């Protein structure tokens, strides 16, 4: 049977993969062999000591090869067993295995926005070459050949993620034409990061087949167009139980105190997106509100009414690292004592 080892390259956003034949089915990542790759070709090691070791961490069914074949999410180490600097999973796993965090069972729902581009022009799918479509309004959740571009790709991705065992909870067309979103979750702890990365891998493979380019740039088209985010919905056991609304308010207060640190870790180029317009809060100002899509953190009406539930951090950019964002939110709201 075939296994496809997935790794994150030196830019922190470049997914790569290599295939390996196994003698029989494997369901436990610890039973898979460690492997290596040339880190000097990914910007992660010098040429004279180029070996980076892959540690298998999570297994998914392979929607492309089917059968017993698998996709394997890996993280990266030196031959001496030290996590390399771009290995963000290792430190996230430490936070999630902290007894305080584990006891709170953090749930995540991540809304991954992305934009489909025409391969030869790097211009959004469905846009006239060198020109612009009509203004935003009819495209969000829209249908029709003049409003919806790339639906076959999006539907194939949805089905492939379900097949792979990713907890994908939905898809929709976004506000800017050529832009879409999928949601992963609710997922617990480190598995949220694993699932988002594998869902991104599957999406990029499907766009490759379709001859289309996917970009996770937070503001692919400057001007009066929506950017792309990765809104992160979050709750702990205490937030989901009676009296949870008070716990949520205390958690948001802690997020406010560490706004700068979070923004610094929430994705490159995010300042182009967080302008205070196009359903965003200004990057320099922390705000929260009920049902407010122009705030840094939004609390749903239902959560307010029930007095418990979850909240949404709207600051992360579409190119954020889910390992970094999920573990940082847990660390700030559960472990950190201001």
TrEMBL record:
InterPro entries, A to Z: Gln_synt_N, Gln_synt_N_sf, Gln_synth/guanido_kin_cat_dom, Gln_synth_cat_dom, Gln_synth_gly_rich_site, Gln_synth_N_conserv_site, Glutamine_Synthetase
Domain (GS catalytic): residue spans on this chain: 88-338
Ranges for region Disordered: 19-48
Family: Belongs to the glutamine synthetase family.
Gene Ontology CC, one term: cytoplasm
Keywords: ATP-binding, Cytoplasm, Ligase, Nucleotide-binding
Species this chain originates from: Panicum virgatum (Blackwell switchgrass)
A Pfam family of this chain: Gln-synt_C
Domain GS beta-grasp: 1-81
Protein name: Glutamine synthetase
Catalytic activity annotation: L-glutamate + NH4(+) + ATP = L-glutamine + ADP + phosphate + H(+)
GO biological process, one term: glutamine biosynthetic process
Gene3D superfamilies: Glutamine synthetase, N-terminal domain, Glutamine synthetase/guanido kinase, catalytic domain
């Amino acid at each position: 049977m075939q296994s496809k080892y997935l790794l994150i390259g030196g830019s922190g956003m470049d997914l790569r993969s290599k295939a390996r034949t196994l003698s029989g089915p494997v369901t436990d990542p610890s039973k898979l062999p460690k492997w290596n790759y040339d880190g000097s070709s990914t910007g992660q090691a010098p040429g004279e000591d180029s070996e980076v070791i892959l540690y298998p961490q999570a297994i998914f069914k392979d929607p492309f090869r089917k059968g017993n074949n698998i996709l394997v999410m890996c993280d990266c180490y030196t031959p001496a067993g030290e996590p390399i600097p771009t290995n963000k999973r290792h430190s996230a796993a430490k936070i999630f295995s902290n007894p305080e965090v584990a006891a709170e069972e953090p749930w995540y729902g991540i809304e991954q926005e992305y934009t489909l581009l025409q391969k030869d022009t790097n211009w959004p799918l469905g846009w006239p070459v060198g020109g612009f479509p009509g203004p935003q309004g009819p495209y969000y959740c829209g249908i029709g050949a003049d409003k919806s571009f790339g639906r076959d790709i999006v539907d194939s991705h949805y089905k492939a993620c379900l097949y792979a065992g990713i907890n994908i909870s939905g898809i929709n067309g976004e506000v800017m034409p050529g832009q879409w979103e999928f949601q992963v979750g609710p997922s617990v702890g480190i598995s949220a990061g694993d699932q988002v990365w594998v869902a991104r891998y599957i999406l990029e493979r499907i766009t490759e087949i379709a001859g289309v380019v996917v970009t996770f740039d937070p503001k692919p088209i400057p001007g009066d167009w929506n950017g792309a985010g990765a809104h992160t919905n979050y709750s702990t056991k205490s937030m989901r139980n009676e009296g949870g609304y008070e716990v949520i308010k205390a958690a948001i207060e802690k997020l406010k105190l560490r706004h700068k640190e979070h923004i610094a870790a929430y994705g490159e180029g995010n300042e182009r997106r967080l302008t205070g317009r196009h359903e965003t809060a200004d990057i320099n100002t922390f705000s929260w509100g009920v049902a407010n899509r122009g705030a840094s953190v939004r609390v749903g009406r239902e959560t307010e009414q029930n007095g418990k539930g979850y909240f949404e951090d709207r600051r992360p950019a579409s190119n954020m690292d889910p390992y970094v964002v999920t573990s940082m939110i847990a660390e700030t709201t559960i472990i950190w004592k201001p």
